[in-house]
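Bench notes, bay 3.
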Amino acid sequence: MASKRGPYAKTDGRRRELGRAALALVQEKGHRQVAVAEVADRAGVSEPTVFYHFPTKDHLLIAALEQFDDEHIRPEGLEAGAIADMGRRAEKGVRRRHIPQLYAETVGASVDPEHPANGYVRARQERSMRVIATDIRLLQDLGMVPGELDAAAAARTLLAAWEGLQLQWLQGPAFDIRAQIEWNIEHLLGANALEPHQRPGEPEPSS
């Protein structure tokens, strides 16, 4: 796809700058403590400029989550190992409480089809399920997961379990979320799904 030019590229770039600024502040202090004026100051723009790009604080916080997703959800072509890494990522994720707390509240708001979170959450979950399903199919191709398994259905189940366990961890008391997620993977896909692997023809990962 051709890169954007002119005012469209500038607008997209500014939106990303504001999303990064909002994300940094959320990670530092939590979304409820973040003011739009602080985001403007962090990004070096005026508050009206922020509202030009994001009509409400909800839109701005969604941009922060989108920025986080772009930095942490595996891109197309690099899905190998996503299943084996789920437990570690979940364990690391809940320790950064501000991000899962914001995501949990955003998911709750998304049940309203008119809320700006609705489209974001649906797209985000589809993106995550696509990564998981792609890795399941790779595991099937490698003979590490039963070939008759419905990869898409399994991906939906694993993602739902991850998000549900994350919510339970945030509500407390804390538990070993990595062990629970890996237990789910093992019982749904088999123990081999937790083994390191890569696409045929790819070099072995460096140690």
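Next record in the batch:
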Amino acid sequence: MTDTATELPYTIHTTDDGTPQEGVWQPVGTDDALKNGFDSWYGVTLCGIGPEDEPPVEFIALGHDTDRRALVAAANRWMRTYWEWPNLLGDTSRAACTALRPPVNAHVVLLRATAAAGAWEDTWQAVTVPADTPGAVPVTVLDLKSALDNPVRLHAQVEDLQARIGAWGQRPPGWWPSAGRRSSGT
């Protein structure tokens, strides 16, 4: 595979003989997006993006008119559905979403792999581009990286866990003494 420079602000992957392995894809409505890895919850059509086989580090939602609360709720639903997290950031504390950056409006070109890409056929990638780029799609980006790495959020998780343990009377629910321990009663 080689990268073929274009006059546009992105490259197209090609085979060694120059056959394009990907082309520009513009979702034609929600149904087309759903067929290609997006989901739609709470009126938001979105997809998690990031390294393969890892939880997404950011989400993109189609359009610029996305309500922030609906976007966070849809991303939360994505994480619960596909990664079985109890909530968006994997914790139950009230401070879970305080470290989220505000969503950002951007434009991306979605490059979908063709049959020439072999095993990668029908996968796609998003490349951030200027708004006037041919094929640019308006999206709203929700970045999780800063929130996932935020030490204040991690500290809040520890405090929440300590409070829960305290509420359990210093013993987690279902805790039983070991079989070798004897009661001091008569």
